[in-house]
Amino acid sequence: MSAVMITRKLRKWEKLPGKNTFCCDGRVMMARQKGIFYLTLFLIIGTCSLFFAFECPYLAVHLSPAIPVFAVLLFLFVIAMLLRTSFSDPGVLPRALPEEANFIEMEIEAANGSVPSGQRPPPRIRNVQINNQIVKLKYCYTCKIFRPPRASHCSICDNCVDRFDHHCPWVGNCVGKRNYRYFYLFTLTLSLLTIYIFAFNIVHVVMRSVDQGFLSTLKETPGTVLEVLVCFFTLWSMVGLTGFHTYLISLNQTTNEDIKGSWSGKNRGQNPYSHKNIVKNCCEVLCGPTYPSVLDRRGLMQEDSPTAANSEGPCSFDNLVAQTVKTTAPLIPNEHTPDDVKPSIAAEKSSAPKDDPPLAAKLPPLASPETDAETSIVKNQ
Ligand SMILES: [Zn+2]
Ligand SMILES: [Zn+2]
């Protein structure tokens, strides 16, 4: 009797390089370090639970039942935006396939000519024109691609991310082209929720103190002090962060570009992505088109692999990644990647001035400290 060979098709997320973790069979994608993300969840859920337990019953009876209802709606929206930001692909660019990488290498060598031994080869840069300005695209030695405009390599996730804004440990993910607006809505609504809880905590303490005295009020609602403290410290940071991102959105700028001063200083040009109009910039960043993920995480790999060899299941992905990141050869079979979003091709396409409005419509990206954003620009002659 012949042995039955059980095979399981591997999905592409299981072979993706980079330092992301996946769950739900590739539907959820996050950075590997998630400790601070859990702290964020704990603080939000914990503080809101105390508010619902100690203040809401009193306020609903003595002020209005709308207070807890609105708090619940705001809380649910905050959590939804947080999870949407944390669990999604921020706009990771697939690495070049070995053949693509070889082709780019050949192109670079042909362009640079032979470099005498001992001399440093010229930097790998391509220039593209965006809104009459020359923008330099740097070559990523890890991903083997020329990064599209505004993309940067996140050293924590080890991926190039399109319109990279920053890597945010509080949401446990990069913030880039595909999740920036959700990140912004998260900071905005969390600021409102914090102000809301803080304000109604004060109202609650004042109303109860009139009836039964300040100290006995605190004794009866021990959560109040904790809530006020958490809200007080969260409030300043969240309102400040929301204000900062509102400012960036109004300029159509990313945190990465702001930190690196890409569009400021004597020898820098103007931001070629800005419409020079606050309303247009805000509309583009917050209401512009959404972009599909180009990773095709749940697509099936071509080859079959025995189940036994993969008995660890999705949990073995960390090991897989640990092996794959050591290799220089890209492992993403991105044959389903739409041509217009393939990084190397996208970089070339962006040289066409007619592509400028869509490029400007991209969401802001930021870089972790070690990343090299290459959006330095020189004035077009
Ligand atoms: Zn890269
Ligand atoms: Zn990252």
Would you mind describing this structure in some detail?
It is built from eleven helices and 13 strands. Strand 2 and strand 3 form a beta hairpin. It is α+β, with helices and mostly antiparallel strands and 381 residues long. Strands 5, 6, 7 and 13 form a four-stranded antiparallel sheet that branches. Strands 4-9-8 form a three-stranded antiparallel sheet, with no helix packed on it. Helices cover 44% and strands 14% of the residues. The C terminus is likely disordered. The chain has one domain. The radius of gyration is 25 Å and the shape is elongated. The chain starts with 6 loop residues before the first strand and ends with a strand. Bound molecules: zinc ion (2 copies). The site of one zinc ion (ZN) has 5 residues, from loops.
Characterize the overall form: elongated
Distance between the first and last residues' Cα: 77 Å
Q: Please tell me how large the radius of gyration is.
A: 25 Å
The biggest sheet amounts to: 4 strands, antiparallel
Count of all domains: 1
Beta content: 5-15%
Query: Which ligands does the model contain, each kind named once?
Result: zinc ion
**Main structural class:** alpha+beta
Q: Tell me the number of strands.
A: 13
List descriptors:
381 residues; single chain; 44% helix; disordered C terminus; binds zinc ion; four-stranded antiparallel sheet; elongated; alpha+beta
